[in-house]
Design goal:
By secondary structure, the chain is of the alpha+beta class. About 50% of the residues lie in helices and about 20% in strands. The chain starts with 15 loop residues before the first helix and ends with a strand.
Protein backbone atom coordinates (compact mmCIF):
# COMPACT_ATOMS: atom_id res chain seq x y z
CA UNK A 1 0.00 0.00 0.00
CA UNK A 2 1.28 3.47 -0.81
CA UNK A 3 2.09 5.85 1.98
CA UNK A 4 -1.05 7.26 3.64
CA UNK A 5 -0.93 10.07 6.13
CA UNK A 6 -4.25 10.43 7.90
CA UNK A 7 -2.91 13.03 10.32
CA UNK A 8 -2.68 16.61 9.04
CA UNK A 9 -1.23 19.62 10.84
CA UNK A 10 -4.50 21.45 10.22
CA UNK A 11 -6.15 19.04 12.68
CA UNK A 12 -4.32 20.63 15.62
CA UNK A 13 -6.65 22.19 18.19
CA UNK A 14 -4.03 24.33 19.92
CA UNK A 15 -3.29 22.22 22.99
CA UNK A 16 0.06 20.42 22.87
CA UNK A 17 -0.98 17.42 24.98
CA UNK A 18 -4.26 16.82 23.13
CA UNK A 19 -2.63 17.29 19.73
CA UNK A 20 0.03 14.69 20.59
CA UNK A 21 -2.64 12.21 21.67
CA UNK A 22 -4.68 12.85 18.54
CA UNK A 23 -1.61 12.11 16.44
CA UNK A 24 -1.17 8.79 18.23
CA UNK A 25 -4.80 7.83 17.58
CA UNK A 26 -4.48 8.73 13.90
CA UNK A 27 -1.29 6.69 13.63
CA UNK A 28 -2.97 3.65 15.18
CA UNK A 29 -5.97 3.89 12.89
CA UNK A 30 -3.49 4.14 10.02
CA UNK A 31 -1.91 0.91 11.28
CA UNK A 32 -5.36 -0.70 11.09
CA UNK A 33 -5.71 0.60 7.56
CA UNK A 34 -2.39 -0.97 6.61
CA UNK A 35 -3.48 -4.29 8.16
CA UNK A 36 -6.74 -4.19 6.26
CA UNK A 37 -4.98 -3.67 2.94
CA UNK A 38 -2.01 -6.01 3.35
CA UNK A 39 -0.86 -9.17 5.13
CA UNK A 40 -2.39 -12.59 5.68
CA UNK A 41 -5.61 -13.04 7.61
CA UNK A 42 -4.29 -15.00 10.59
CA UNK A 43 -1.44 -12.54 11.22
CA UNK A 44 -3.92 -9.68 10.91
CA UNK A 45 -6.23 -11.26 13.45
CA UNK A 46 -3.66 -11.33 16.22
CA UNK A 47 -2.27 -7.88 15.39
CA UNK A 48 -5.78 -6.46 15.11
CA UNK A 49 -6.79 -7.79 18.52
CA UNK A 50 -3.65 -6.32 20.08
CA UNK A 51 -4.22 -2.99 18.36
CA UNK A 52 -7.88 -2.90 19.42
CA UNK A 53 -6.81 -3.54 23.02
CA UNK A 54 -4.50 -0.56 22.71
CA UNK A 55 -7.16 1.62 21.07
CA UNK A 56 -9.67 0.92 23.82
CA UNK A 57 -7.23 1.68 26.63
CA UNK A 58 -5.75 4.68 24.83
CA UNK A 59 -9.08 6.21 23.85
CA UNK A 60 -10.25 5.96 27.47
CA UNK A 61 -7.00 7.62 28.58
CA UNK A 62 -7.26 10.28 25.88
CA UNK A 63 -10.93 11.02 26.44
CA UNK A 64 -10.34 11.34 30.19
CA UNK A 65 -7.53 13.80 29.48
CA UNK A 66 -9.62 15.77 27.02
CA UNK A 67 -12.64 15.88 29.31
CA UNK A 68 -10.50 17.10 32.21
CA UNK A 69 -9.29 19.94 29.98
CA UNK A 70 -12.88 20.77 29.10
CA UNK A 71 -13.80 20.91 32.79
CA UNK A 72 -10.87 23.23 33.49
CA UNK A 73 -12.01 25.51 30.66
CA UNK A 74 -15.70 25.25 31.64
CA UNK A 75 -16.32 24.12 28.11
CA UNK A 76 -19.88 24.89 27.09
CA UNK A 77 -20.50 21.56 25.29
CA UNK A 78 -18.80 19.28 27.82
CA UNK A 79 -21.81 16.97 28.35
CA UNK A 80 -22.47 16.55 24.64
CA UNK A 81 -18.79 15.94 23.96
CA UNK A 82 -18.52 13.33 26.72
CA UNK A 83 -21.53 11.52 25.28
CA UNK A 84 -19.84 11.34 21.87
CA UNK A 85 -16.75 9.88 23.53
CA UNK A 86 -18.86 7.24 25.26
CA UNK A 87 -20.59 6.25 22.02
CA UNK A 88 -17.23 5.97 20.23
CA UNK A 89 -15.85 3.68 22.95
CA UNK A 90 -18.94 1.50 22.58
CA UNK A 91 -18.35 1.34 18.83
CA UNK A 92 -14.77 0.16 19.30
CA UNK A 93 -15.82 -2.42 21.90
CA UNK A 94 -18.57 -3.75 19.60
CA UNK A 95 -16.07 -4.24 16.80
CA UNK A 96 -13.64 -5.87 19.22
CA UNK A 97 -16.28 -8.43 20.19
CA UNK A 98 -17.07 -9.07 16.52
CA UNK A 99 -13.40 -9.51 15.62
CA UNK A 100 -12.83 -11.90 18.53
CA UNK A 101 -15.89 -13.97 17.57
CA UNK A 102 -15.38 -14.20 13.81
CA UNK A 103 -12.38 -12.34 12.40
CA UNK A 104 -12.27 -11.60 8.69
CA UNK A 105 -10.69 -9.07 6.37
CA UNK A 106 -14.19 -7.69 5.70
CA UNK A 107 -14.80 -6.92 9.39
CA UNK A 108 -11.37 -5.31 9.67
CA UNK A 109 -12.03 -3.09 6.66
CA UNK A 110 -15.44 -2.02 7.97
CA UNK A 111 -13.88 -1.20 11.34
CA UNK A 112 -11.15 0.86 9.69
CA UNK A 113 -13.53 2.89 7.52
CA UNK A 114 -15.79 3.65 10.47
CA UNK A 115 -13.01 4.68 12.87
CA UNK A 116 -11.18 6.71 10.25
CA UNK A 117 -14.26 8.75 9.36
CA UNK A 118 -15.41 9.22 12.95
CA UNK A 119 -11.98 10.38 14.10
CA UNK A 120 -11.47 12.87 11.28
CA UNK A 121 -14.97 14.29 11.66
CA UNK A 122 -14.80 14.47 15.45
CA UNK A 123 -11.44 16.27 15.54
CA UNK A 124 -12.31 18.66 12.71
CA UNK A 125 -15.89 19.43 13.68
CA UNK A 126 -15.87 19.08 17.48
CA UNK A 127 -12.44 19.10 19.12
CA UNK A 128 -11.27 22.22 17.30
CA UNK A 129 -14.01 24.15 19.10
CA UNK A 130 -12.76 23.37 22.61
CA UNK A 131 -10.05 25.99 23.04
CA UNK A 132 -12.31 28.81 21.81
CA UNK A 133 -15.22 27.53 23.92
CA UNK A 134 -17.46 27.19 20.88
CA UNK A 135 -20.49 24.92 21.22
CA UNK A 136 -20.49 21.70 19.21
CA UNK A 137 -24.03 22.43 18.08
CA UNK A 138 -24.35 26.21 17.84
CA UNK A 139 -27.67 27.90 18.43
CA UNK A 140 -29.64 27.56 15.25
CA UNK A 141 -32.98 29.03 14.31
CA UNK A 142 -34.72 26.98 11.68
CA UNK A 143 -38.17 26.79 10.17
CA UNK A 144 -38.92 23.08 10.13
CA UNK A 145 -36.93 20.02 9.07
CA UNK A 146 -36.26 21.29 5.55
CA UNK A 147 -34.53 24.46 6.72
CA UNK A 148 -32.60 22.58 9.40
CA UNK A 149 -31.24 19.90 7.05
CA UNK A 150 -30.20 22.61 4.60
CA UNK A 151 -28.28 24.49 7.30
CA UNK A 152 -26.64 21.39 8.79
CA UNK A 153 -25.54 20.22 5.33
CA UNK A 154 -24.16 23.61 4.35
CA UNK A 155 -22.24 23.72 7.64
CA UNK A 156 -20.70 20.32 6.94
CA UNK A 157 -19.89 20.76 3.26
CA UNK A 158 -18.79 24.39 3.30
CA UNK A 159 -17.18 24.77 6.73
CA UNK A 160 -15.77 21.32 7.48
CA UNK A 161 -14.86 20.24 3.94
CA UNK A 162 -14.48 23.62 2.22
CA UNK A 163 -16.76 22.72 -0.68
CA UNK A 164 -18.30 25.64 -2.54
CA UNK A 165 -22.10 25.26 -2.67
CA UNK A 166 -23.37 26.68 -5.93
CA UNK A 167 -27.08 26.02 -5.50
CA UNK A 168 -29.63 24.39 -3.20
CA UNK A 169 -33.21 23.64 -4.00
CA UNK A 170 -36.21 21.75 -2.67
CA UNK A 171 -37.64 18.96 -4.82
CA UNK A 172 -40.63 16.64 -4.74
CA UNK A 173 -39.88 13.01 -3.87
CA UNK A 174 -41.04 10.88 -6.80
CA UNK A 175 -40.33 7.45 -5.34
CA UNK A 176 -36.58 7.12 -5.60
CA UNK A 177 -33.31 8.81 -4.68
CA UNK A 178 -30.70 9.31 -7.37
CA UNK A 179 -26.94 9.25 -7.02
CA UNK A 180 -24.01 7.04 -7.86
CA UNK A 181 -23.77 6.13 -4.16
CA UNK A 182 -26.87 6.07 -1.96
CA UNK A 183 -26.49 5.81 1.81
CA UNK A 184 -29.50 4.99 3.95
CA UNK A 185 -29.35 5.75 7.68
CA UNK A 186 -32.19 4.81 10.02
CA UNK A 187 -32.07 6.67 13.32
CA UNK A 188 -34.07 4.91 16.05
CA UNK A 189 -35.38 6.86 19.04
CA UNK A 190 -39.02 6.94 20.12
CA UNK A 191 -39.70 6.20 16.45
CA UNK A 192 -37.58 5.64 13.35
CA UNK A 193 -36.27 8.47 11.20
CA UNK A 194 -34.99 7.73 7.70
CA UNK A 195 -32.25 9.67 5.94
CA UNK A 196 -31.22 8.94 2.36
CA UNK A 197 -28.06 10.53 0.94
CA UNK A 198 -27.56 10.37 -2.82
CA UNK A 199 -23.95 11.24 -3.67
CA UNK A 200 -22.84 11.80 -7.24
CA UNK A 201 -19.66 9.93 -8.15
CA UNK A 202 -17.60 13.13 -7.99
CA UNK A 203 -19.06 14.07 -4.60
CA UNK A 204 -18.38 10.62 -3.11
CA UNK A 205 -14.81 10.72 -4.42
CA UNK A 206 -14.18 14.22 -3.08
CA UNK A 207 -15.49 13.50 0.42
CA UNK A 208 -13.64 10.19 0.69
CA UNK A 209 -10.44 11.87 -0.46
CA UNK A 210 -10.82 14.62 2.12
CA UNK A 211 -11.45 12.10 4.91
CA UNK A 212 -8.79 9.53 4.08
CA UNK A 213 -6.31 11.09 1.68
CA UNK A 214 -7.02 8.11 -0.60
CA UNK A 215 -8.89 7.70 -3.86
CA UNK A 216 -11.94 5.48 -4.35
CA UNK A 217 -10.56 2.67 -6.48
CA UNK A 218 -13.73 1.69 -8.34
CA UNK A 219 -16.87 3.81 -7.94
CA UNK A 220 -18.96 0.91 -9.32
CA UNK A 221 -17.68 -1.58 -6.73
CA UNK A 222 -16.78 0.08 -3.42
CA UNK A 223 -14.58 -1.92 -1.07
CA UNK A 224 -15.54 -2.41 2.57
CA UNK A 225 -13.38 0.48 3.81
CA UNK A 226 -14.96 2.90 1.34
CA UNK A 227 -18.48 1.68 2.13
CA UNK A 228 -18.12 1.94 5.89
CA UNK A 229 -16.52 5.41 5.60
CA UNK A 230 -19.44 6.77 3.56
CA UNK A 231 -22.02 5.08 5.81
CA UNK A 232 -20.36 6.66 8.85
CA UNK A 233 -20.42 10.05 7.11
CA UNK A 234 -24.17 9.67 6.55
CA UNK A 235 -24.58 8.63 10.18
CA UNK A 236 -22.76 11.74 11.40
CA UNK A 237 -24.87 14.03 9.20
CA UNK A 238 -28.17 12.41 10.19
CA UNK A 239 -27.49 12.22 13.93
CA UNK A 240 -26.37 15.86 13.91
CA UNK A 241 -29.68 16.85 12.32
CA UNK A 242 -31.61 14.70 14.81
CA UNK A 243 -29.85 16.41 17.72
CA UNK A 244 -31.82 19.53 16.73
CA UNK A 245 -35.05 17.84 15.66
CA UNK A 246 -35.35 15.69 18.79
CA UNK A 247 -37.29 17.99 21.09
CA UNK A 248 -37.57 15.25 23.72
CA UNK A 249 -33.76 14.93 23.83
CA UNK A 250 -33.82 11.14 23.84
CA UNK A 251 -31.24 9.51 26.06
CA UNK A 252 -30.61 6.77 23.50
CA UNK A 253 -30.09 7.14 19.77
CA UNK A 254 -29.34 4.09 17.64
CA UNK A 255 -28.29 4.21 14.02
CA UNK A 256 -27.90 1.62 11.31
CA UNK A 257 -26.74 2.22 7.78
CA UNK A 258 -26.65 0.57 4.37
CA UNK A 259 -25.25 1.53 0.99
CA UNK A 260 -26.61 1.14 -2.56
CA UNK A 261 -25.48 1.95 -6.08
CA UNK A 262 -27.13 4.19 -8.70
CA UNK A 263 -30.73 4.36 -7.47
CA UNK A 264 -32.78 3.48 -4.39
CA UNK A 265 -36.47 3.42 -3.49
CA UNK A 266 -38.01 2.58 -0.13
CA UNK A 267 -41.60 1.57 0.66
CA UNK A 268 -41.24 3.11 4.14
CA UNK A 269 -40.96 6.62 2.70
CA UNK A 270 -44.14 8.65 3.02
CA UNK A 271 -44.17 10.77 -0.12
CA UNK A 272 -46.50 13.30 1.52
CA UNK A 273 -44.40 13.59 4.68
CA UNK A 274 -40.83 13.81 3.43
CA UNK A 275 -38.20 16.47 2.74
CA UNK A 276 -36.01 16.26 -0.36
CA UNK A 277 -33.16 18.71 -0.90
CA UNK A 278 -30.62 18.95 -3.71
CA UNK A 279 -27.15 20.52 -3.33
CA UNK A 280 -24.93 21.44 -6.25
CA UNK A 281 -21.27 22.00 -5.31
CA UNK A 282 -17.99 22.50 -7.10
CA UNK A 283 -17.27 18.80 -6.37
CA UNK A 284 -20.54 17.24 -7.45
CA UNK A 285 -24.12 16.77 -6.39
CA UNK A 286 -25.88 15.56 -3.24
CA UNK A 287 -29.55 14.67 -2.66
CA UNK A 288 -30.86 14.31 0.89
CA UNK A 289 -34.24 12.90 1.82
CA UNK A 290 -35.62 12.91 5.36
CA UNK A 291 -38.77 11.18 6.55
CA UNK A 292 -40.17 10.25 9.93
CA UNK A 293 -41.30 6.63 9.75
CA UNK A 294 -43.80 6.77 12.55
Amino acid sequence: MGEIKLWKEEYKIGNEKIDAQHKELFFKVEDLLDMAMTGDEETNRQECLELLDFLISYTIFHFDTEEELQKELNYVSYSQHARMHSEFKNTVRAYQAEVEKDFSKEILKKLTGTLMTWLVMHVCDCDKKIMNNQPISPEMNFDGAEDLIRKVTVQLLACTYDLHIQRTRTSVYKGNIEGKIIVRNIISMEKDHIFLFGFSGDMARALYRKISGMEIQNINELNDIEQSALIELGDIMSTQAMAYLDEAKSSSIESRGDIYLDEYSDSLIDINNSVLLEFETDCGRLEILYCSAG
